[in-house]
Amino acid sequence: MAGRGVKQQTMSESTLETETETETETGTESESSSVDPKGGGGLRWLEKLSDVPMGKLPPHLEFQRTHVECKADAPLHTDTIQYSGAYASLGVDNSVRMDSFCDNFRVEVMRLTEDDMEFDMIGIDPALANAFRRILISEVPTMAIERVLIANNTSVVQDEVLAHRLGLIPINVDPRLFEFAGNNTPNEKNTIVFKLHVRRKPNEPSSVKSNELIWSPKGSEFLLASEDSKSADTSSKPRTYTSFTCRQDSLPEFSNNAIKVMENILIAKLGPGQEIELEAHAVKGIGKTHAKWSPVATAWYRMLPEVVLLQEVEDEAAEELKAKCPVGVFDIEDIGKGRKRATVARPRGCTLCRECIRGGQQWEDRVSLRRRKNHFIFNIESTGALPPEVLFTEAVKILEDKCERVIADLS
Amino acid sequence: MEHGSFSDHTKSTFSLTDEDHTLANAVRFSLNQDPRVTFSGYSIPHPSDNKVNIRIQTTGDLAADVLKDACQDLMLMCQHVRSTFDKAVVDFKMSER
């Protein structure tokens, strides 16, 4: 077994070194042609090989495990090797133990503002990084306008289009303070009511912006249709479209903290004399149901790029290389006697456009573009309901809850 | 819900409702890291059904136990990710000041 492992290793090694152009040959032919010349007689070439240290992968396999190599035509080794016994024949354990994960996992925050952050997650599998990304986009809840009661709309914007536009306006309120409504009656714990009543006189500006949506803390003011027909014989309060037991601004979390929507979003334009009067009810939901509930504008990651110069690139070639790169990854340094040499100054900026390795084999021999498989540059852009760092922790909690639910189902 | 044979509990398919690639792919990763697992994979039988089937075959342990351990591992990883992340954010905010 061990012998076979070693042989396979050399074959792939020499294939890497010498046989980049002989891909058209069949597999067996290229293998034998790369092995035979080395040995000459029999398997004597085997003896010349240095021992593979047990418990450690040979460098080329380690490279394949940890890097994606980007060639001019296609990337190589794009898959992640997850199976614990993938390298069992080499005596290498590929499983991730909790303690080794804890030792190796790192987070470095690069940028953090009110609604946007960038951080590096190092030492994690794409399966987990992608789970976090997916949860951020489609499973972290927010509040969004779901029902719109239109009393009057004489604008050119149709009711349904208007309702859709209102739904997409981000609401700056912590969704954790609310419950999912489900089929419950709308109350102060699961619904936010906004009023919009605008009527334009001639010569007034005609735009209706989101600023004119006014939070109505005592709930809906429109009477239920059934109540309208009844005469005022009952002494009890007439029923509206919500049943609030108290005013929302009497609750401690909102008393000094009025609920607002994101400002300066155009809702509609009105002509002289036109009017919109409506009530918008916002409820809690998740992005899976409708994108208006997604708490992020985008959440995305990319693997850390590595740019390596395989040869010294000097003088005209260095100038050419610097000019090739549209994002300015390369720089030129003076090495004396009027000679210049290219250096890799900003590899993180590499977008993998592969412009630098286009233009023939000589460029592919000079520059190697790689991506680290376990180093993610993660970006979160919040829509404003929650700050991005809170969004991420919420997303991780949601994945924990999912696991907990499976465990509970099994026991 | 577990689908398997009555005699052999080391090979089973688990059907999870209201889950998708988010959990299934993460659990598969976690299962693959477990040396007791000989095979693990998942499929979504139909894109309109919100359910996912996770297949597990083990070297001898009960498939349900292995899946439970995989979820447990995943949870521990998440907790570690969360604490590390929170610490990194606090450190960053301190350095900004």
From TrEMBL, chain A:
The keyword Nucleus applies. Pfam families: RNA_pol_A_bac, RNA_pol_L. It comes from Morus notabilis. One of its GO terms (molecular function) is DNA-directed RNA polymerase activity. It is found in: Nucleus. Its main location: nucleus. This is DNA-directed RNA polymerases I and III subunit RPAC1. Belongs to the archaeal Rpo3/eukaryotic RPB3 RNA polymerase subunit family.
From TrEMBL, chain B:
PROSITE patterns: RNA_POL_L_13KD. Residues 12-83 form the DNA-directed RNA polymerase RBP11-like dimerisation domain. Keywords: DNA-directed RNA polymerase, Nucleus, Transcription. This is DNA-directed RNA polymerases I and III subunit RPAC2. One of its GO terms (molecular function) is DNA binding. Its main location: nucleus. Gene3D superfamilies: RNA polymerase, RBP11-like subunit. It is found in: Nucleus. InterPro entries: RBP11-like, RBP11-like_dimer, RNA_pol_Rpb11_13-16kDa_CS, RNAP_AC19, Rpo11-like. It comes from the Eukaryota. Belongs to the archaeal Rpo11/eukaryotic RPB11/RPC19 RNA polymerase subunit family.
